[in-house]
Amino acid sequence: MEAMLTCGNWTQTLGCVGKVRLGGGGVSSDKTVFGAHNGLRRSSSAGLSSVAKELRVVSSFRRRQAANVGAGDLSVRAASGNGAAPKQFDYDVVIIGAGVGGHGAALHAVEKGLKTAIIEGDVVGGTCVNRGCVPSKALLAVSGRMRELRDEHHLKALGIQVGAANFDRQSVADHANNLATKIRGNLTNSMKALGVDILTGVGSIVAPQVVKYGKIGFSDKTVTARNIIIATGSVPFVPPGIEVDGKTVFTSDHALKLEWIPDWITIVGSGYIGLEFSDVYTALGSEVTFVEALDGLMPGFDPEIGKLAQRILINPRKIDYHVGVLAKKITPAKDGKPVQIELVDTKTKEPKDILEVDAALIATGRSPFTKGLGLEKINVTTQRGFVPVDERMQVLDSEGKPVPHLYCIGDANGKMMLAHAASAQGISVIEQIAGRDNILNHNSVPAACFTHPEISMVGLTEPQARALGTEEGFKVSVAKTSFKANTKALAENEGEGLAKMIYRPDTGEILGVHILGLHAADLIHEASNAIAMGNTIRDIKFAVHAHPTLSEVLDELFKAAKLDEEHAAVETPKEVLESVSA
Ligand SMILES: Cc1cc2nc3c(=O)[nH]c(=O)nc-3n(C[C@H](O)[C@H](O)[C@H](O)COP(=O)(O)OP(=O)(O)OC[C@H]3O[C@@H](n4cnc5c(N)ncnc54)[C@H](O)[C@@H]3O)c2cc1C
Ligand SMILES: NC(=O)c1ccc[n+]([C@@H]2O[C@H](COP(=O)([O-])OP(=O)(O)OC[C@H]3O[C@@H](n4cnc5c(N)ncnc54)[C@H](O)[C@@H]3O)[C@@H](O)[C@H]2O)c1
C-alpha cells in the first residue's frame, strides 16, 4: 500500500504501514492492521523547555574538545567519495532535522563542547513548533477560555456574571500562527547564539559518517561528521482510500490553520490529535462525530481513565461516535455535495454506514519521515519506515548490529512520538557521545492530552501492569484519589477528576500513574520524576505538599497505597502479643 503524505513543503510517497502498537513500556500488543504509529500513552511539551535550556547552556557554554570524545582535527576536509568512512571530520555531530529532537540534541552537544551542525530541509522547529504541540496548544487555550466563559452553570456557582462570550476565528488562528513563529524564532536564535551551524537543505547519508545536503534543485554540499543523528520526524498518516484535499478533508497540518469552522466534522481516530481537536471544535461551535477503528474510544488510555474521559469529555458535548469501524473511503465535498465517508466493520470489512458531513479530520497516527535518507547505503533497513534503534538510540543495521556513530531520535524511530521524548533521546545520545553511558527510561516519560480537563499519564496502564505482574510473578495493586476531595479543585469549582496509581505492594515501585482533572498535565511530573529517580512510594509518601494545592491529589494518592510491609508492621505486635500470652 502506498499513501501520499506531505511534510511542510514536501510531498513524498511512503509505504503504508502494518500494525497499531497499543501501549508502550514493558507490555505491548500488536492489534489491527491500519496506520503507522507508535504506542498511545504519552506526551507533553518540549522544545518549549528550550528557553530554560538556553539559559543553562549560555551560562556554561565554553567550546572545548572533550578528551573522551576524540573529536580529532576539526578543520574542513573533503569527504571520501568511495563509501569508506573519513578519517577526519568537519563536525563532531551532524544532526539531520531541526525539530525539537534535533534542537535538544544540538543544544546539549554545544554544552558538551562538541562542534555541531544541524541540517534542516524545511523550517526550524519541525512538527511540534510549526504543525503540532505549539499551535495546537494555542487553539486549546482558546477552547478552555471559551468553555469557561460559556459555562453559565460553572460561572454562576462562583458568583460571576458575564455577557455572551464570542470569538473571532481569524484572530484565534493568528494567535496560533504567531505563537509558532515566536517559538520558531526562539529555537533558531538559541542555536545560532550558541554556535550551532544551521545548514539549509535536505540531508542524506552518502557513506558512513558522510552527509550531503542541499536545497532541492541546487547542487549538494558534503560534510563529514564523527557522529550523525537522524532526527527527521514524522508526517500525518492517511490511510489508503481517503482523499485529502486540504479544505474539507484534511489532517492536523491543515486543521491547525483554522481556516474555517465546520458545523459538523467527522474526526477519524480518537487518539491524542482526535481528542484535542474535538475539544477545540466543540468549544468553537462544531458538532463532532468520531470514527474509531478499535472497539472503544481512546483505546490507548488506561481503560478506567478512558471511561471517565468519555463521561466528562465526550458525553456532555455535541459529540457522537462510531467505534469498531474503519473509514474505508472518504471523498471531499464537491459540486455542492458534502464530504462522504464510507464506514466498514474493522473486523469483517462489511459495509456499516455512510456519513455525510461538512468536513473530515484524519487523525489516524503518523508515519516516520525517513525516505531518501540513504540508509540503504549503509545497510540499514527501515521497519514500516521507522529507523530501528537499540536502547541507546544507536541505529541497527540489517543484521541487528549497531552502526557505529549513527543514532536516530524522535518520531523517526517510533519509540515514543512525543516532543519531549525526542528531545530527551537527543540529550541521552549526546551524553553517550561525550563519553557517559546513558539510557533513557522511556517508562518515566510522561504524556498529556491537553483537553479540558487534561489527561496525563506515565508508565504502564493497569492492564499492562497486570499482564507484566502475571508474566514476572508479582502482585499489582491500585490506589485512587478523587479531585472531589481536593480543596483547591473545589475552590475552582473543578472537582471532576481522578488520579490512579498502579504499583507493586511488595516493593513500593510505582508502575504507572494516570490523572484526569484540572492541570493534570502539570501534576504528572511528581510521579514521572519519582519513576525516573527510582523512588518508591515509601520514599515519597511522607513528602509534604502545600495546602491547598492540586498537588495534594497526588499526596493523597501516595498515602492511599497499601504496601505489604505496612500490613506486616500492623500484624507484628499482634503476633508478638499472642506469642507472649501463649
Ligand atoms: C497536532 C499535533 C499536536 C502535538 N502535540 C504534542 C504535544 O502537545 N506534546 C508532545 O509532546 N508532542 C506533541 N506532538 C508530537 C510532536 O510534535 C512530535 O513528537 C515531535 O515533533 C517529534 O519531534 P522530532 O524532532 O522527532 O521530529 P519533527 O518535529 O517532525 O522534526 C523533524 C524535522 O526534520 C526535518 N527533516 C526531515 N527530513 C529531513 C532531511 N532529510 N533533511 C533535513 N531535514 C529533514 C523536517 O523538516 C522537520 O523540521 C503533536 C503532534 C501533532 C501532529
Ligand atoms: N498532547 C500530545 O502529546 C499529542 C497531541 C497530538 C499528537 N501527539 C502525538 O502525535 C501522534 C499522532 O497522533 P494521532 O492522534 O494521530 O495518533 P494516535 O496513535 O494517538 O491515535 C490514532 C487513532 O486512530 C485510530 N485509527 C487508526 N486508523 C484508523 C482508521 N482507518 N479508521 C478509524 N480509526 C483509525 C487508532 O485506533 C487510534 O485510536 C501520537 O503518537 C501522539 O503521540 C501527541
Question: How would you summarize this macromolecular structure in one to three sentences?
Answer:
This protein is of the alpha/beta class.
Quaternary state of the chains: single chain
Instruction: Just give the CATH class of the largest domain.
Output: Alpha Beta
CATH architecture of the largest domain: 3-Layer(bba) Sandwich
Give the full name of the CATH homologous superfamily of the largest domain. Answer: FAD/NAD(P)-binding domain
Protein name: Dihydrolipoyl dehydrogenase
Pfam families: Pyr_redox_2 (PF07992), Pyr_redox_dim (PF02852)
Domain FAD/NAD(P)-binding: 91-426
Binding site for NAD(+): 269-276, 292, 365
Overview of this structure, please?
32% of the residues lie in helices and 25% in strands. The protein has 582 residues and is α/β, with parallel strands linked by helices. It has three domains: 91-236 and 367-434, FAD/NAD(P)-binding domain; 249-364, FAD/NAD(P)-binding domain (3-Layer(bba) Sandwich), CATH 3.50.50.60; 443-560, 2-Layer Sandwich (Enolase-like, domain 1), CATH 3.30.390.30. The strands form seven sheets. Strands 5, 6, 7, 8, 9, 10, 21 and 22 form an eight-stranded mixed sheet that branches. The chain has a five-stranded parallel sheet with strand order 12-19-13-14-15. Helix 2 packs parallel to helix 6 (169-194). It starts with a strand and ends with a helix. The protein binds flavin-adenine dinucleotide and nicotinamide-adenine-dinucleotide. Nicotinamide-adenine-dinucleotide binds at residues 20, 34-35, 37-38, 40, 43-44, 239, 268-274, 276, 291-294, 299, 326-327, 363-366, 417-418, 447-450.
